[in-house]
Specification:
Blueprint: H1 6-14, H2 16-34, H3 36-47, H4 51-54, H5 56-71, H6 79-99, H7 106-135, H8 139-161, E1 171-172, H9 176-179, H10 183-192, E2 213-214, H11 218-229, H12 231-242, H13 250-262, H14 283-286, H15 291-323, H16 331-358, H17 361-381, H18 386-400, H19 403-414, H20 421-447, H21 450-497
Helix pairs in contact: 2-7, 2-8, 2-12, 3-10, 5-7, 5-20, 6-7, 6-11, 6-12, 7-8, 7-20, 8-16, 8-19, 10-16, 15-16, 15-19, 15-20, 15-21, 16-18, 17-18, 17-19, 17-21, 19-20, 20-21
Length: about 500
């Protein structure tokens, strides 16, 4: 039995260069999103800042990622504008990697990470938009592959950084032998801060020097990552050349005109709705839409707000949960949980490339969301088992890995690629990853580490309920569309008969 039928293969062959380019820019996204956690202590030494000050770098990256996601749809009106935005964003990521070792102040580092975050957000929206536009009803399989490359980049980044991280205190003060933290304490701090700096409430107990000689070698890691990322903007530039978007020849001008015309609908609308988040609220584009059209956007965004929030919360706090009572796991052992979680998400997305072709999106989403609930419930039941925490972490990553690409493809298909679904869903997911993680962190701080599992389980139930409501509204929306088309055909028949 063939893994993919001939039609899907022919579709890929017809758009292989564009598809591979969009996949590669998501590798840049993953490379950039995963390096900060492991390297944050060395960056603290480099900037002579406290732990509380350096964690603002996480917020800077996450906030501007959200801003970039909201604005990314503004660049989709033509292929030229989309590829130009991707080229500039991937170059910015390489540039940020290169200049991070030169940032000797935490404010400068935060500005650099803000630029990287905004570039990541634009990449997130544009790559999803362009693949959906390219493949439409067949986009689910290719979106699964797209999100696999995030995981691939997120796996490569820590591997590159690890050999260059300081084993002991990377700032040597006058009395460093008496007060410097041990290597096990530093490993504990790195693992605690791996989830975007979420676990801040236990950090003040570790006294770390801010003044003295800096002995970190982490600069080499960033320069290596800058070089690793350079083929990505080169791939975008190659695609622009292949599409004749770089020269001023007559052939290039005809292609540009054709590209502009293809982005114009028969009604003269130059954008079918896939603009920035704020352009989606244009009254001229919303007039005449049924209520179910807006409800589907809201429910789809809410589901991804929840599920991406669970991913961010679990990655951010599973280490804190593992080293706290009753598990009291060792620092090195617990530090593997976050890597296992992201590795299972990557493997899951690889597996769902095939499954998304074999099964419908509603079936995959139902399986995934029910699986997430079952795993969370079992984790709460066997909360004293270290072995089951590892098993549950792996299975949870596999189950939740496909929700974003499947939900995106399903929602766009229902709305017939006329709405702002991609921009709304990408922005909602980024918002959920940032805000839900902060909420869970505050609950853990006040109620204890077990509240981490309880919060994630409650969020999982809410996500499933929202999806069931989404299916119900989708059924109503489909019936409304069917009735509307029937009425239109009945009105046209008398006119035809009178000719």
């Amino acid at each position: 039995m063939k893994l993919l039928d001939e039609r899907i293969w022919l579709l890929f062959k017809g758009h292989w260069q564009k598809t591979l380019t969009y996949w590669s820019v998501f590798f840049s996204f993953g490379l950039c999103i995963a390096f900060l956690g492991p390297t944050i202590l060395d960056l603290r030494c480099q900037t002579h800042s406290t732990l509380q000050q350096i964690t603002w770098v996480f917020f800077s990256q996450q906030f501007f990622l959200l801003v970039g996601s909201s604005l990314g749809g503004l660049f989709k009106k033509t292929l030229l504008s989309s590829l130009s935005a991707l080229l500039s964003c991937t170059l910015i990521i390489s540039l940020v990697f290169a200049v991070i070792p030169l940032c000797r102040d935490v404010v400068l580092l935060s500005i650099a990470m803000a630029l990287a975050g905004k570039a990541m957000g634009v990449i997130d929206t544009i790559a999803n938009l362009q693949l959906v536009k390219l493949y439409q009803k067949d986009s689910a399989t290719f979106l699964q592959a797209l999100h696999f490359f995030i995981g691939l980049g997120a796996l490569v980044s820590p591997l590159v950084a690890d050999p260059f991280l300081a084993e002991d205190s990377c700032v040597l003060g006058a009395n460093w032998t008496a007060n410097s933290s041990s290597s096990s304490d530093l490993q504990h701090l790195r693992s605690s801060m791996a989830g975007h700096g979420a676990a801040l409430h236990n950090l003040s107990q570790y006294p770390l020097h801010t003044e003295g000689e800096v002995i970190t070698r982490v600069s080499y890691a960033f320069w290596i990552m800058a070089l690793i990322n350079l083929p990505v903007p080169a791939a975008v530039l190659t695609l622009m050349y292949h599409e004749r978007l770089l020269s001023c020849s007559s052939n290039s001008q005809r292609l540009l005109d054709k590209d502009s015309a293809s982005s114009t609908s028969p009604t003269g609308d130059t954008d079918q709705g896939h603009g920035g988040l704020f352009s989606c609220c244009n009254p001229s584009k919303l007039r005449g839409r049924p209520a179910t059209f807006f409800i589907l956007h809201a429910l789809g965004g809410a589901i991804l707000f929840i599920t991406d929030g669970i991913i961010g919360s679990y990655a951010g706090f599973v280490y804190t949960y593992a080293v706290s009572p009753p598990l009291l796991m060792g620092h090195k052992t617990a530090g593997c949980l976050d890597s296992i979680f992201w590795a299972s998400i990557t493997v899951g997305r690889l597996a769902f490339i095939y499954l998304s072709y074999r099964y419908t999106a509603p079936r995959l989403l139902s399986f995934s969301l029910v699986g997430v609930i079952l795993v969370q419930c079992l984790l709460m039941i066997f909360y004293t088992s270290c072995v089951f925490l590892f098993i549950g972490t792996c299975v949870l990553g596999l189950c939740i890995s496909s929700v974003f690409p499947s939900m995106l493809a399903f929602t766009e298909d229902i709305l017939e690629y006329k709405g702002c679904a991609t921009t709304v869903l990408v922005t909602s997911a980024s918002t959920g990853e940032m805000l839900l993680q902060l909420l869970v962190g505050s609950v853990i701080h006040s109620q204890g580490s077990y509240a981490f599992l309880l919060c994630c389980t409650i969020a999982s139930f809410i996500g499933l309920c929202l999806f069931l409501l989404f299916l119900y509204v989708q059924h109503i929306h489909t019936n409304c569309q069917t009735d509307s088309s029937k009425n239109t055909n009945m009105e046209e028949k008398p006119k035809t008969g009178g000719l």
